[in-house]
């Protein structure tokens, strides 16, 4: 039985065609009919399909030539690498997709390292070979230089044209080892994902490593120690398909009446309560949010609605962290932790779109470690909590190892922007005569402020990047405050490197002047470090705002204009007597524009 | 007796007639008007007359103002106006009520002495000349078909034709314009001794050639070569407005509405009826009506308007009835809100009685120095004139 099962993932740099290849595999194996096929069936959140990216991992069971192939899809974006790692833990093999027109990119490498760490068999695939600018030979050469795979081991495909799909499936059967495991041993099942169903509670996606489960089994979550009775098990095939049992080597789902995703932790091991396994499976590193920001309702009356919305979103997103906080300027809201900026944007967009909330998000920041002269260090995730500078011995901030892949002609400008962002050069390697890999150490705080956009812009979109956290290092940091109308606005405080404080203060004051509308009174904007003002701008008083023309009796039109103006103001946050638009809180991220 | 008529309607004192034809669209214009459709004029006038007939069968019109707006109404021939006015005359109920004010908008590039004489003879007694500027540089920028010389000529012709109530429309805050240049425009206008002046700051509307160039990057076939840096800032706009008020009031003009100035007794009665939210009927493609608290708008498609025989049965769509958005019991409050934000445009303001339910807003706006009391009226302060939208938005 086990030797007829293959569990595999598809890993790739973003846009290299992972989801399209998955679609073709489903079609080719008649898992889904062509007619029922929506492009990228595995991306089932609206936002995923609109942005063309995969956020949540998905699993699907495929029957082919007497084999059962379990495909576990993975996200391609660096923010979601934890999703990749947990999907990979449930597999024995991975298809590594490389775009024939792009070659190896930063996340190609990062994801393949993850696969190697999980001891997966990797099948390299060059995709998009039908494109006129495909450079198959060059990419084959790169694959050989970087990973050591020979030409014969690489499969050439065009997912769009359906070329090479059979070869891929045959290679999965031939090369990916069948799962090991003993179906008579004590139950060990790995939870690799979960989603929340309003009617059935948490649906956990599991890979059975040893033993078997069936309906009625009393199970125990080894991490949390809580017991449940299994209500339903089955396989995943673009929907849930009930089965009586699942046993070692299989991938499927279970429902055990768990009401909360947190009690059913992804990465936890499920065992049988009566006959527990001796030890849990190696899970994965718990997910730690790296980027924090405040999220506040524009209308304070929406606070509870926001809380409910977070609770619901978290049912599906174990990486989302949030806790109540209060800001003098913004009132009641939440301090939220995210995996990265994309994760932040997606959550904000979902809150606004699916839960119909008007939100203010403050500029994202990292977690700082503050060392004191005579007491224990603390970690702060909000610049507003910055302690009195005279008590501080030193401040540490998270650093990353940054890897950039780029055509060689952009090395100069990339080095320029990376050095500006306090990056320390660590090395440069040629993949082939025209492609270079640059390594840097860089503060995470710099990476999350415009770095990705700048990197794309100076390389005309050709460079790609990946980063991993390497630990905390001491930096000379200061807290910069912003005063609007002479009142400090805690939500606009930011932590910056001392050498950059003047530049950031000046640009931030200028940006705020641009985005905050004129009022009936003059509004001074000041940037300060401690009591020292380092930059100042003034928004002059609004002198004229009146519709001049009466459009031949078109009162409705006039009314609409006034309504629009009024609506615009409603979406702003009233801080003291100043109306501040959402953009103001993000201005610190857009200083170079 | 509520109405001096057998009809179940409030009186409608004003009629607006829209003429949606132009030789060439101006670069800032987003009104309902079309270039190169002049061959439809005869059919259009027929449709107007049918429209008038169908309206007049069930409404009561003690007409006191008629207004021909556009577009460029002066693209029509005198015989067209004659026909339309006759249609209106024949249906008027009171024999002695020859409308007191019959206005026409005129493009200075389209009016000969002979033409104006004919208009005057058939009873049109107020001429509104779209001068816009006396500076040829800006006339060109705005896409006007006339130059400054033609304005003087048109004005002279109008006087000679017998018009004794002439308005000049002027536009300020044109990209690149200086305060000095606007001052010259005002001086030129005053040298003609008009009875009325309307001054508007240039609004750059989406979809117009000016917008394509100044506000977005979308390529527009008629892009105007003016750089972003020349867009008038609100400060200069305010200075120009202030200069306008000072200049015109110092020579005997009454500043009676935000953008309008008149010699005593020459205030535009037709527009005052709009601002007071009286009843008016709009005839023609794209025309708006307001009767007994209801708004509607005719189709803006000329061919459709003609095809429907001028009857607004299928061609018109009712303006969304905003009162539906209000909670039950507040319906009808819509008109109060409109009365407030339209009426406050008049410098005399409006009677306190209209403000019931807005006491909180009034206190706040008074504190901000935007509104003040004057006798039984509440009106905009000088500061409020400049910041009218901040006041009006409280009432929408």
How does this model look, in words?
The complex is a heterodimer of chains A (593) and B (396). In chain A, 25% of the residues lie in helices and 34% in strands. Chain A has 13 helices and 33 strands. In chain A, the strands form 7 sheets. Chain A has an 8-stranded antiparallel beta sheet with strand order 11-10-16-7-8-15-12-13. Residues 52-57 of chain A have low confidence and may be disordered. Chain B is α/β, with parallel strands linked by helices and 396 residues long. Chain B is globular, with a radius of gyration of 21 Å. Classes of the chains: A alpha+beta (593), B alpha/beta (396). The A-B interface holds A 518, 520, 540, 542-556, 558-559, 562-563, 565-566, 569 and B 16, 18, 31, 69, 199-201, 203, 234-235, 237-238, 241, 258-259, 271, 274-275, 277, 280, 282, 287-290, 295, 297, 319-320, 322, 338, 341-342, 345, 368, 385-390, 392-393, 396.
């Amino acid at each position: 039985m086990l030797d007829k099962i293959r569990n595999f993932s598809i890993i790739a740099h973003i846009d290299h065609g992972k989801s399209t290849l998955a679609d073709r595999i489903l079609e080719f194996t008649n898992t889904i009919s062509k007619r029922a096929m929506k492009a990228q069936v595995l991306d089932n959140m609206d936002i995923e399909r609109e942005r063309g990216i995969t956020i949540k991992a998905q699993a699907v069971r495929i029957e082919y030539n007497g084999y059962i192939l379990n495909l576990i899809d993975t996200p391609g974006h660096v923010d979601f690498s934890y999703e990749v790692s947990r999907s990979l833990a449930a597999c024995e093999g991975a298809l590594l997709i490389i775009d024939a027109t792009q070659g190896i990119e930063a996340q190609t490498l990062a994801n393949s390292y993850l696969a190697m760490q999980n001891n997966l068999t990797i099948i390299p695939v060059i995709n998009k070979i039908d494109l006129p600018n495909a450079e198959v030979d060059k990419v084959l050469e790169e694959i050989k230089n970087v990973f050591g795979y020979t030409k014969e081991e690489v499969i050439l495909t065009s997912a769009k044209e359906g070329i090479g799909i059979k070869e891929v499936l045959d290679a999965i059967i031939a090369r990916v080892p069948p799962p090991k495991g003993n179906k008579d041993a004590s139950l060990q099942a790995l939870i690799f994902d979960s989603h929340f169903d309003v009617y059935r509670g948490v649906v956990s996606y599991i890979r059975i490593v040893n033993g078997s489960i069936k309906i009625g089994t009393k199970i125990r979550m080894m991490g949390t120690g809580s017991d449940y009775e299994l209500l339903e098990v089955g396989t995943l095939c673009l929907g849930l398909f009930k089965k009586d049992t699942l046993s070692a080597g299989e991938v499927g789902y279970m429902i055990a009446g768990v009401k909360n995703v947190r009690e059913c932790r992804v990465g936890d091991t499920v065992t049988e309560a009566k006959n527990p396994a001796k030890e849990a499976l190696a899970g994965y590193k718990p997910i730690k949010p790296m980027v924090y920001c405040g999220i506040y309702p524009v209308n304070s009356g929406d606070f509870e609605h926001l809380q409910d919305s977070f609770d619901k979103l978290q049912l599906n997103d174990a990486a989302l962290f949030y806790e109540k906080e209060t800001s003098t300027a913004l009132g009641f809201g939440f301090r939220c932790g995210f995996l990265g900026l994309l994760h932040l944007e997606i959550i904000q967009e979902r809150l606004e779109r699916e839960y119909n909330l008007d939100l203010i998000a403050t500029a994202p920041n990292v977690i700082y470690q503050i060392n004191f002269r005579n007491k224990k260090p603390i970690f702060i995730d909000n610049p507003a909590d910055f302690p009195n500078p005279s008590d501080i011995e030193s401040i540490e901030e998270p650093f990353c190892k940054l890897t950039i892949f780029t055509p060689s002609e952009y090395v100069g400008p990339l080095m320029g922007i990376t050095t500006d962002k306090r990056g320390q050069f660590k090395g440069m390697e040629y993949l082939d005569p025209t492609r270079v890999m640059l390594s840097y150490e860089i503060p995470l705080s710099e990476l999350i402020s415009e770095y990705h956009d700048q990197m794309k812009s100076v390389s005309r979109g050709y460079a790609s990047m990946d980063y991993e956290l390497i630990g905390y290092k001491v930096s000379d940091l200061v807290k910069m405050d912003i005063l609007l109308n002479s009142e400090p606005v805690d939500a606009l405080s930011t932590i910056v490197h001392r050498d950059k404080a003047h530049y950031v203060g000046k640009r931030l004051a200028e940006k705020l002047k641009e985005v905050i509308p004129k009022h009936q009174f003059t509004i001074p904007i000041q940037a300060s470090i401690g009591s020292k003002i380092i930059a100042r701008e003034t928004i002059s008083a609004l002198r004229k705002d009146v519709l001049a023309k009466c459009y031949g009796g078109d009162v409705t039109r006039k009314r609409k204009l006034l309504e629009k103006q009024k609506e615009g103001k409603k979406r702003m946050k009233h801080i003291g007597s100043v109306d501040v638009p959402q953009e103001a809180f993000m201005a610190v991220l857009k200083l170079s524009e | 007796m509520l109405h001096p008529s057998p009809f179940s309607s409030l009186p409608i004192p004003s009629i607006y007639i829209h003429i949606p034809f132009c030789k060439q669209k101006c670069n800032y214009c987003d009104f309902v008007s079309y270039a190169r459709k002049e061959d439809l004029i005869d059919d259009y006038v027929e449709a107007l007359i049918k429209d008038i007939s169908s309206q007049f069968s069930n409404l009561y019109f003690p007409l006191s103002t008629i207004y021909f707006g556009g577009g460029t109404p002066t693209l029509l021939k005198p015989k067209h106006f004659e026909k339309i006015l006759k249609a209106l005359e024949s249906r008027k109920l009171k024999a002695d009520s020859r409308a007191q004010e019959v206005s026409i908008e005129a493009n200075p590039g389209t009016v000969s002495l002979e033409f104006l004489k004919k208009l005057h003879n058939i009873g049109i007694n107020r001429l509104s000349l779209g001068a816009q500027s006396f500076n040829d540089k800006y006339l060109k920028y705005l896409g006007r078909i006339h130059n400054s010389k033609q304005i003087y000529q048109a004005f002279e012709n109008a006087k000679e034709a017998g018009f004794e109530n002439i308005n000049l429309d002027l536009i300020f805050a044109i990209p690149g314009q200086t305060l000095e240049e606007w001052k010259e425009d005002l001086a030129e206008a005053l040298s003609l001794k008009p009875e009325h002046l309307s001054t508007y700051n240039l609004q750059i509307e989406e979809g117009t050639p000016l917008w394509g160039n100044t506000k977005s990057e979308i390529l527009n076939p008629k892009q105007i070569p003016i750089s972003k840096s020349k867009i008038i800032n609100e400060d200069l706009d305010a200075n120009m407005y202030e200069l306008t008020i000072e200049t015109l009031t110092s020579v005997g003009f009454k500043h009676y509405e935000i953008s309008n100035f008149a010699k005593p007794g020459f205030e535009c009665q037709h527009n005052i009826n709009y601002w007071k939210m009286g009843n008016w009927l709009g005839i023609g493609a794209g025309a708006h009506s307001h009767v007994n608290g209801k708004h509607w708008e005719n189709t803006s498609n000329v061919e459709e308007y003609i095809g429907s025989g001028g009857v607004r049965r299928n061609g018109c769509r009712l303006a969304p009835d905003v009162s539906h958005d209000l909670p039950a019991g507040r319906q009808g409050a819509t008109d109060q809100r409109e009365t407030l934000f339209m009426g406050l445009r008049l410098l005399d303001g409006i009677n306190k009685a209209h403000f019931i339910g807005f006491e909180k807003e009034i206190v706040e706006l008074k504190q901000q120095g935007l509104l003040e009391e004057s006798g039984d009226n509440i009106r905009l302060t000088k500061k409020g004139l400049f910041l009218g939208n901040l006041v009006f938005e409280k009432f929408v």
